[in-house]
Amino acid sequence: MAEIVLRDVEKFFGENYVIRKLNLTIQNKEFVVLLGPSGCGKTTTLRAIAGLEEIDRGDILIDGKAVQNLPAGDRDIAFVFQLFALYPHLTAYENIAFPLRATGESRSQIDGQVRAVAKAIQIEHLLSRRPSQLSGGDMQRIAIGRALVRRPKAMLMDEPIGALDAKLREEMRTELKRLHLENDSTTVYVTHDQVEAMSLADRIAIMNEGVLQQVGSPTEVYRHPANLFVAQFIGSPVMNVTKASVQTSGAVASVVVGEGDGSFGFPSELPQKMAAASHGQGDFMLGIRPEGVLVSRQQAPGYVPVEAHIIEPLGAYDIVDLKVGRQFIRARTASGYVGKPGETVYARLDESQTHFFHPATGESLNISFGGA
Amino acid sequence: MAVVSSPRKAVFNRLAIVGVLIATIVFLAPIYWIASTAFKPRELATTVPPTVFFTPEITPFIKLFVKRVQMTKPVDKATYDAAPWWEQRIYDGGERVLRTGGAVQLSAYPDRFMNSLIVAVISTILAVGFGTFTAYGFSRFKMAGEADLLFFILSTRMLPPIVVAIPMFLMYRAVGLNDTHVGLIILYVAFNLSFSVWLMKGFMDEIPKEYEEAALVDGYSRMQAFFKIVLPEAATGIAATAVFCFITAWNEYAFALMLTNRRAQTAPPFIPSQLGSGLPDWTTIAAGTVLFLLPVAIFTFVLRKHLLRGVTFGAIRK
Asked: How far apart are CA B74 and CA B113, in angstroms?
């Protein structure tokens, strides 16, 4: 098992600058998820670690040793592909044994290892089948078995369960987590699915347009997004983001959203905090997740009247689009809490769940209000 | 069988079957004709209308394999009775078998047939082999002028081959490739290579590159990955390409006629040349043709599954 370090890695595809000065350290035994929209460079990064893609500048270190010029086979890592890449002309057994055959181990040694792995991933009964006779989930189990069997320094997975249907994906997610815990394998996992990332990762590295946006534990990136991109990429339903400004009258501070579309009361230390973040009185982008928008059917102190516009019942909870002037703010309410569209309800922003971003750069202003 | 869901569909299915039957009959008619002629007594070969019912005999095949000459006077009874049954069939036709010492002289047909096999098999192996490697290169690696190179390879097929017949003939004579197996093999490989490269590239493109990448990560070299993974995956494509190349080389007539005359002559120019010796003996020519059709028929039959896939390649992808 190993530590992987990416140092100032850069990669061009012709004119396209697909990885920009990437610095990332993956600790021994850590499960790191590279998360981002398609085309953000996450897969290229993974393939560069594997040696399937050459990098133009920078270093890739595995256990302190620069490997960027080594061929893939000499890096002692395993790769799980999205479309499994099982060899169709070989049985499941032969597929798992394939990496071992390259090492020239004896037949009985190989057999022992293949059977041990098959047991660990619970596919012993499938060993004699060919890939075409297997379900998608089983194919991916075999592919993971093929990766595990060599006991590589690290496992690299490129959307390994992206091709499976939703139910199976959930199952496999749990299984991947179990396998990771049992094997203590250093894992780098690429996905565009933030739910997958949140549930699997020790740390998530979020990328966009070749730039690493933020690295942190799932809770960190969820609670303290470093910028607007991360804020809106992580979390479902998506975080509300609206232009806003601060207004003070006496000891009372309030946040005006949009172009004076609505005003919500805030703790009076907001102006000081803004000043401390050296942002002064200017406009900013206000972010608040739907669960941070508190909704009440009764008038209550600090709550302002708004109109419920659309209600999306999602079973466990409802998502209600609240009309604030010309703006819409999505709130999460208990199922059936708001009766029907058009009703007037009262809303308040939970200041401990609000995020403040610079309007031009999108960077977080690092203003937060206790609690959480 | 297809599930018939409506009367209209049933009618359509019947019509389709009738259509297929008619097409099959039309396409098989010449083959039936040549095959039946190969078993006909000589005097029935050219009757008008064609004789459909006759007692089949294998005399044409005997004639095909032995050297024989026309006799000026009939054979005497003692010699006839002493001759083996197949030689008697030759005497029946007013000819006698040529012998050196006691041994029967074989006709040139077996030699020519062998030449066809040598040239077609070797040129197919080479064309498909080169084509597979070239296609792999084109499919997997970025190279400067890739599209131009592919177009150039294709362009070798744009000229009707016969246009270059005279220059080919002169060049071959100049370098001494006239009437040699090597000469024909080179020519047929050049013929088939562009076809082989393009067809194989289609198949190679269909093989996900992840297969090799998985092998590369697992510690195999690219060469090992090619032989262990790519080749087995491409087997279908290779088989289909081989059938097409083999048929082209096997059937080629014009260049074989022009560039070979004895040592390396293949069967296609040889079979009709028998027309010239004595009266045209259509039954023997038909026998030669039937035997000549067999290798391709067998080869195609053995690889028929791949062939069908070769025809529809690119269309099927799970």
From this structure: 32
